Amino acid sequence: MPSPPKATCLLLTYQQQDHVAETVQSALQQDCAPMQIVLSDDASRDDTFLRMKEVVDRYDGPHEVVLNRNETNLGVNEHLKKALGMCREDIIIAAAGDDLYYPHRNRRILEAFDATDPLLVFSHADVTTLDGAPAPALYRKATFYTTTDRMAAAKSLSLYLGATCAWHRSLYRKYGPMMFDNTFEDLILGFRAALEDRVHFIDEALLTYRVGSGLTNTKPERFTPDSYRAQRLREIESNTCVYRQRAADAKTFGLGPAHEVSKLLADRVADGEVRAAFIEKGWAGLAPFLGRHPLQAISRGVSEARRRKKRIGAT
């Protein structure tokens, strides 16, 4: 009989001093077989690392704990890349520094890997504000909670709640590292697992997902023309990089340029290029595109002009 799968729980933190001690405690109290738990802080400027270390210093349980603090802030993707180098096992159970993990979470995830041999596992979560009040579970609108079809995955910029996931390292071995620093790993790893038709959903809440910090606490921005231009270009570039990475992954998987998924991704990349050109140079920026697909180029320009007017009232 094969031995049950093993995993490393990887908890990444940054500027979460108010909640990280409770979070780390919940990670250390997992009721699964002894496992490696990597706790890594990305050079927080507050007391996040100190409070994490205090919990670890008091811990005398069965799990093996690796504690790391980066000397300089690396950013999300570079931090993840460095932390993965500390992880011993092929199955990585993701954890963030402000959520609460139910004691059976890791055990349920390992049972899923053992039973169905997936490459990516995700679940539901109970959603609260930072002070514990119930909050809407908006993540349920993400694509994988309805379908894991590869075409649907190719289109989507919201696949699943990344805080709930675990994945197999072979998603990196086969497809390589992410080519772009401004892409989120859940959008890439989720698509890769969908290509392989090896996604598993655990239909229960395995953690409390706390909203109210970071991006979830960002108030709607009041734009000037310059600030809107910069923000919109960043957004378009990030989305286009996701589609470029997915196009490369589809090719690695074996989908040819005539496949419907490959064609869709090529169209999404082209769409991003047209939109960025319009944001940068206005209607004059569309000139290189008018000879190939004039109606599409003009429609993208009209769409972006309307979006800009809605956000800043500019014409």
| CATH topology-level fold name of the largest domain | Spore Coat Polysaccharide Biosynthesis Protein SpsA, Chain A
> Taking Cα atoms only, what radius of gyration do you get, to the nearest Å?
21 Å
Which CATH architecture of the largest domain?
A: Alpha-Beta Complex
CATH superfamily of the largest domain: Spore Coat Polysaccharide Biosynthesis Protein SpsA, Chain A
Which residues form runs of ≥5 with pLDDT under 50?
214-219
Structural class: alpha/beta
Helical segment count: 11
Which geometry do the CA atoms define?
globular
**What is the H-and-E element order?**
EHEHEHEEHEHEHHEHHHH
Describe the structure.
This protein has helices spanning 20-28, 48-58, 76-84, 105-116, 150-155, 170-175, 185-195, 225-253, 260-281, 287-290, 294-312; strands spanning 7-13, 36-41, 64-69, 91-96, 100-101, 120-129, 166-168, 199-211. It has 315 residues and is α/β, with parallel strands linked by helices. The protein has two domains: 7-217, Alpha-Beta Complex (Spore Coat Polysaccharide Biosynthesis Protein SpsA, Chain A), CATH 3.90.550; 225-312, no CATH class. An eight-stranded mixed sheet has the order 3-2-1-4-7-6-8-5, sandwiched between helices. Strand 2, helix 2 (48-58) and strand 3 (64-69) form a beta-alpha-beta unit.
What's the quick description here?
The protein is an alpha/beta fold and 315 residues long. It is built from eleven helices and eight strands.
